[in-house]
Amino acid sequence: MSRTISFSILKNINNRGYIQVSSISKSLNIPIPFIIKIINKLQREYYVKIEYHPKYGYRLQSPIIMLNQARIIAGIKFSSVIVECIDSIDSVYTYMQSMLVQKGKYYICIAEEQTNGKGRFDRFWYSPPTENLYFSLKTTLSSKLKDLSGLSIIISISIIEVLSEQYPNLDLKIKWPNDIVINNKKLAGTLIDIKYKSTNIICSYITIGIGINVNMQKSSKLKGEWTSLANELNKHVDRNQLAIGISNNLILTLKSIEKNNPKSPINNYYKYDYLKGKTVSLSISNKKIIRGVICGINKLGHLKLKVGHSEHTFASGDVSIIKDSEAQL
Ligand code: BTN
Partner of 140 at 20 to 30 A CA spacing, among 49, 70, 197, 294? Predict the structure, then answer.
């Protein structure tokens, strides 16, 4: 099924009140049987609650708050920010990676759906239409590569600050290096790409990609343990408000990194450290797996792991927690 068509149909049905399938067919120039097939799939695969009345047609049980570019722009406190909201795209992150940017400007792209969302280690990031936040920001920083280590942790803290301000009762934690979890269930993930150009000026090009599960309540597609804001809060969440908060706090964070702000945000990591003291297996390059006990992170944001009697640090890797019952063995 083409996701772009399913998104267009969803947008039509979202137009408050009932809509006849013939009107959708006319406005999108798609045959009626195909539209009915997609409506059925929207209900089955994305759990969209669509009601049908034989006389009046289709309507959403509760209307979806779509992304609103003008509202997001109005909510951003900084100048030199360009915001683009897109209906459907393969990935806002890959789009932003290829974007040419001017020094000192912030480019933000947010999509209603991604057809080829990217996760860490080339995994697929499930991005169903209108449910979640698929956000990417690109900018330049006058910082050297070595001063940007730990950036992914700093970004995760910046996201947590916004989430805890908007939704104070959530028990948000960071699962190193960049997962945001609630009770070991994944709520959000981040990707970061840094390209350093050393000419006569110091300039790093930073692309950040953030995926937050917002209103997704069920999914037959996701395997691991996950949660969403709606599942935790028992209410529908406005993605525009979230996008505004994240944009403002990210820009503030990036500006403070650039000014070499001495109060390192990494110090805040300990408040949110989900892994401390846990026995884990760490998968690093060459498919090597190391088992040990987590001892926090160092100043560079690298993971400290006690393996046997010695402590080792790792700049990257994929952590799986070993359950207490298995950790004793
Ligand atoms: C992870 O594996 O935890 C990172 C997930 C990052 C997903 C976001 S969604 C917006 C942006 N676009 C992408 O294709 N990926 C990132």
Answer: 70
Phi, psi angle pair for 99, to nearest 5°: -75, 135
* 295-309 pLDDT tens trace: 999 988 999 999 999
Cβ-Cβ contacts under 8 Å for 110 (sequence gap 6 or more): 67, 72, 83, 84, 85, 86, 92, 133, 134, 135, 136, 239, 243
134 C-beta closer than 6 A to ligand 1: yes
Tell me, using a 6 A CB cutoff, whether residue 118 lines ligand 1.
yes
CA distances in angstroms from 175 to 84, 136, 208, 252, 262, listed in the order given: 30, 21, 18, 23, 25
Query: Which alpha helices (H) appear in 108-218, and where do they start and end?
Result: 151-166
CA-CA distance, 299 to 294, in Å (whole number)? Answer: 15
Taking the centre of ligand 1 as the mean of its atom positions, its distance from the CA of residue 251, in whole angstroms, is 19
Q: How many CA atoms lie within 13 A of 263 on its CB side?
A: 3
